[in-house]
Write a structure and sequence with these properties.
homodimer, alpha+beta, Hypothetical Oxidoreductase Yiak, Chain: A, domain 1, Ribosomal Protein S8, Chain: A, domain 1, Wheat Germ Agglutinin (Isolectin 2), domain 1, 3 domains, 7-stranded mixed sheet, 41% helix
């Protein structure tokens, strides 16, 4: 494949750090941001890895949105709860800090929640949920999004971001259960891929300016109006809409961050004020921990053993494809498109940063 | 409408209590169960009100599944967490007890969670979330289901119940936000209604024994194989599947209750061992409470003001239709189908209970 370059995980991490460092980011944010983005690349969540620098973070930096030397402030600190102000930086650093804080609190209280406001894009939602699972805990991670793309049921204009929900739970002999899903039917990335391939969209992915179903991939890509999960009213889009609003209540309203459509018109230097929500539960506080792990393993095994609709396609459990991709990429390297590599080379050059790919 | 009888809320509550009392249920379970079922009838969630007695509880009672004199046991009691054993009774009594306990704990800790095991059907999931919202708190309520009906993506046999998620948050000038949704695309009740009306199902509601799309309403009703929210893989059924599994992990695995497909074959007197999950968060612990309420009111107003796809159909917020129905039914009474009234008359007669409808 001539348009793919295989690079090592070290090279990806070094490239992320070189560019962000040249943009003025300092430790510990630098290493944390690189770690979270690299994780997405390793897990095959390519839209949320190093590509974010080219697709989004560069533009936000150029617009003066991002504070590269944020000083996090813990504005509320109770035994089981905290609220962190991200000081307008990228979201990975306050979010890792929030999840570490929640995990620490959870060791004493059995459950804990940390809200983050005045933040920005935090990468893949699943990373933070997995931090809890790696600590033997159940983790939940959600985020608001600074730009509205998802149209409420019966509506004709966007009100929510893709507002993801991530949930991870620790198993024993199986990898953890890791759900990481947008509450829109598909992400913007799927419209872009369909537009590139010139393929009509399935009805229920995107809408036009009047809120009608749109299957033309070029127009859908330009309009960026997504349906909530369910796609159509008949198939339950009001449920996806309700989940998207739940995510915004927990991320924006609970933390005191901005709700995207209610945000004042953008001005340079004005923060996006994105909010995140994190929750951690200790199964060992509710029941014997070993029993929880055994029962989750049994549930996962039961699902893998489910009779198949197509003998060639096994029934998967959330997190299975990403775990398989991670095993492969850790040994064989990470494939990046040549287009992305070229963009990153240009960005590195413009920033006077080393090019490591 | 000759096949509809309008009855008062008092008559409905009295009928529920008369039958359950004749079956051996005692206080406080009796009043609590009647209150939860009546709430569903008032809110227009007709499938989860008094009709449950005819459609499900009678059969469970006859099969010897239900303990009508349960002694709840709080098997774990920590400052922010508890686990309750429901002793094999209907789910309403342990669930109200669990939510009251969580609300009380939340007053001290800012968030609290209570898990319930060894329970049964608990009525409408939204009731418990609304208990928190009425107390000025955010409430989450989920439940497992004793019989599997939802088929995982790529699968050809059911693994989950309709596994609902309810989430409620308190507003100020608006009614609370109340999301109460099955994680299947539709509930079994919709298949029954379509079968009665002889209408073909939309593709994506139901599956056949091979996991293929099924649009014949009679076969779908008989087979009872639902899709996860999303309906098809293209429209994101793997997300609904993931949410259904998340609900079962929180309700069954966390509490130590049974996972439906892993339950041993039913024997009379053997409990279904259904689990529930409750979580309460105090917005006033994360930020100023008034700010939360103002921001949620602004979000709700913003959604109501969303440009409409159809000028005649306003954009709704989760809980709006049920709040409107409740206002109407509290003054005008509750419509019950004559078929249901006749069934309840027969059940009352067989139980030597008063007939109050």
């Amino acid at each position: 494949m001539p348009d793919i370059k295989i690079v090592t995980d070290q090279a990806v991490a070094a490239q992320i750090k070189a560019i962000l460092c040249a943009w003025g980011m300092v430790e510990p944010a630098l290493s944390i941001t690189a770690r979270v983005l690299l994780w997405a690349d390793l897990r095959g969540i390519d839209s949320h890895g190093i590509s974010m620098i080219a697709s989004s973070y560069r533009r936000m930096r150029d617009a003066g949105v991002l504070n590269f030397t944020p000083r996090l402030e813990t504005v509320v600190d109770l035994p089981a709860i905290a609220t962190i102000d991200g000081d307008g930086g990228l979201g990975h650093y306050p979010s890792v800090t929030a999840m570490e804080l929640a995990i620490g609190k959870c060791r004493h209280t059995g459950l804990a929640s940390v809200a983050v406001r005045n933040s920005n894009h935090y990468g893949a939602a699943g990373y933070y949920a997995c931090m809890a699972a790696e600590a033997g805990l159940i983790g939940i991670s959600m985020t608001g999004v600074h730009v509205a793309a998802t149209v409420p049921t019966f509506g004709a204009e966007p009100r929510f971001g893709t507002n993801p929900i991530a949930f991870a739970a620790p198993a024993g002999r199986n990898p953890p259960f890791v759900l990481d899903m947008a509450t829109s039917t598909v992400a913007i990335g799927k419209l872009v891929l369909a537009a590139r391939a010139g393929k009509q969209l399935p009805a229920g992915w995107a809408l036009d300016e009047q809120g009608r179903e749109l299957t033309d991939p070029q127009r859908a890509r330009a309009l960026r109006r997504l349906t909530p999960l369910g796609g159509t009213r008949d198939l339950g889009s009001h449920k996806g809409y309700g989940l998207a609003m739940m995510v915004d209540i927990l991320c924006s309203t609970l933390s005191g961050a901005a709700f995207a459509p209610a945000r004042p018109p953008f001005e340079p230097g004005q923060p996006y004020d994105v909010g995140h929500f994190f929750l951690v539960l200790d199964p060992g506080a509710f029941r014997d921990k070993a029993g929880f792990v055994d029962d989750l393993d049994a549930m996962i095994d039961c699902l893998h053993a489910t009779k198949r609709a197509d003998p060639a396609q096994p029934v998967l459990v959330a997190g299975d494809p990403e775990a398989a991709t991670e095993r492969q990429r850790r040994t064989e390297g990470i494939p990046l498109s040549s287009v992305l590599v070229d963009e990153l080379r240009d960005i590195a050059r413009a920033a006077n940063a080393e090019f490591t790919l």
